[in-house]
Amino acid sequence: MDYEAMQVLLQSLVSKLRNHLTVNAFRHSLGLCSNLLIPALAYRPVEKALTSVVSPFLPDGAGFTRGKGRGNPEEKGVADLVDLCRPAVLVAVTVLIYFVFKPSDPEDVDGPKEAVEIGKDYYVYVNLVELYPVDSNGNNWDGNPSGKNAAPDVRVYVFLKGVRQYTSDVVQDRLQAMWSGLRVDPSDIIAKGLSLDNQIKVPRTSLAEGDEIVIEVKEVDPPLGLSPSLPLSNLPGIGGKIEEWTEELVQRVTISIADLKEGENAFIYNQDSSKGLKRIKLKMLRSDMPQADLTKQLILGQ
């Protein structure tokens, strides 16, 4: 693993730890102080600049700072006006500094996405599936009429070139199911010195003209209180049969590669025409992209 990939993984771990720390109040206070730092530092330069602009218009002997120019009512009025304008100018300069130096929006930095390229290898990664609160018949998921604990247990299958090449884990009791593209936690890759290539579990394929990606979204409802995450398909001889008995097709979606861009693609489905599927997020990740970037794109929630 190269240094950049390790750095991305370490950043992911630090982010997870930070979310569990109980120092939010301190961090917010620190952020407020940092936001006030620029105006504080800019105050004196702004004051001097304002003095140089206004001084030619002041009567002789009238100064900019408080205590000067107060010898007669005319001079006092000018000085008070300058003092009154000073905070407004400072605020205006602070706002200007903010808009000049604020971070750009990520979408603006990335620019428009490129269409997927024929003949190149891509990882096909379904990282999110969201369902409507009820199925196509208006019923609660898992057949619970009360609505309690009725969120579905979701599994996804991906077919490439007519062959099923990916079976996701089951995400239980979620209308919005998300998956990682890695077999293990990023921390294990570092701690155990694992090869990143061997830990990518999403399928890799070479794109050809006219190719399609088929995604099946299924609700898993195992009988007899069995766990939905039990790998029934691996049982010898009867695995496929049990899958048919315990899984119900929510929706089968066919996507042409002509409609895909590199990176993340989002598909939203109208509830009236959908069988319960609300949206899918599908990532098309080039296999030759920098290892650090690929690692970041495969981490859950990225």
Outline the structure in words.
- The protein is an alpha+beta fold.
- Helices cover 35% and strands 21% of the residues.
- It is built from seven helices and nine strands; from the N terminus they run ααααββββαββαβββα.
- Helix 2 packs across helix 3.
Q: Helix- and strand-based class?
A: alpha+beta
What is the arithmetic mean of pLDDT? Answer: 74
The tally of domains stands at 2
Helix content: 25-40%
CATH architecture of the largest domain: Sandwich
Keywords:
302 residues; 5-stranded antiparallel β-sheet; Immunoglobulin-like; 4-stranded antiparallel β-sheet; 7 helices; alpha+beta; 2 domains
List the helices and strands and how they pair.
Blueprint: H1 3-20, H2 24-54, H3 73-101, H4 106-110, E1 121-131, E2 154-160, E3 163-167, E4 176-178, H5 186-191, E5 204-206, E6 212-220, H6 239-246, E7 247-256, E8 263-268, E9 277-286, H7 291-298
Antiparallel strand pairs: 1-4, 1-5, 1-9, 2-3, 2-6, 6-7, 8-9
Helix pairs in contact: 1-7, 2-3
Question: Briefly, what is this?
Answer:
With 302 residues, this protein is α+β, with helices and mostly antiparallel strands. The protein is built from 7 helices and 9 strands; from the N terminus they run ααααββββαββαβββα. α1 runs parallel beside α7 and α2 packs across α3.
